[in-house]
Inverse folding.
């Protein structure tokens, strides 16, 4: 019921809070964590366009490289924290629409549930489209445990 | 973190599924359950109007009485099931908008989290307004664990 957890993180404080709940779920049988970060490609495209528009095309590659390194570094840190709590950890970095990639990873990995943080209303979430968490609930068949930051 | 759980139920199969997760959360420290059913007053008003329109006004009171008895009977059954699993159980029957009453009860009772079932997309949920679960996540500051039926 709680054995294999998908933990998508955007490295925010909300996501960090969710990590505490995962550790506690160990007592209810949690053993494995699939640690996922989705690079939101619409945001990256927006940024790269801005860089090109400002005439700094030589920074496009630098930006992509720096982003990759930053994500890998942060993911590694969280993976170590989970490993030291005796979880079996797998890390995933994907690009695309965050909620779609989360739903897809949950299916592919056959997780028991998804544990994720969410900002409150308004921040990063339009009322019409909903937050990433709302969209995950809407589109995934997996149980979803949402922790508000 | 998991001590006091609010469990709102509409007596559906999805809600029943959530009950299994609550029992399992005992191992992670769950002790008390506030068992809530919200009588959706907009639906009741709609029904009573229909009864009156059909000329059956004498059935309005009968309908309300029968609904009350039915809810009490079902709540009692679930409360007994939880008690026999060694939970401290409190039951609540409220009238109003389901998600608003769930959010309000969670605050008033100072629960640690909300565990609830949800139907998938489409059933009982418009894409624009979202399901009860989505609205609870949007409006409550409590962690919400959503189990899809």
């Amino acid at each position: 019921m709680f054995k294999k957890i998908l933990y998508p993180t955007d490295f925010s404080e909300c996501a960090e809070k969710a990590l505490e709940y995962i550790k506690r779920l160990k007592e209810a049988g949690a053993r494995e964590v699939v640690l996922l970060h989705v690079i939101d490609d619409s945001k990256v495209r927006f940024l790269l366009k801005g860089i090109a528009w400002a005439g700094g095309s030589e920074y496009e590659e630098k930006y992509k490289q720096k982003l990759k390194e930053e994500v890998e570094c942060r993911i590694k840190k969280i993976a170590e924290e989970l490993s030291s709590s005796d979880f079996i950890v797998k890390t995933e970095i994907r690009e695309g629409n965050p909620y779609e990639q989360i739903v897809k990873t949950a299916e592919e990995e056959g997780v028991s549930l998804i544990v994720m943080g969410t900002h409150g209303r308004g921040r990063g979430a339009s009322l019409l489209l909903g937050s990433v968490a709302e969209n995950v609930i809407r589109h995934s068949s997996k149980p979803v445990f949402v922790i508000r930051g």
Q: What stands out?
A: Chain B is about 50% helix and 25% strand. Helices of chain B lie at 13-24, 41-53, 58-84, 98-109, 132-139. Residues 4-131+144-148 of chain B form a domain with the Rossmann fold fold (CATH 3.40.50.620).
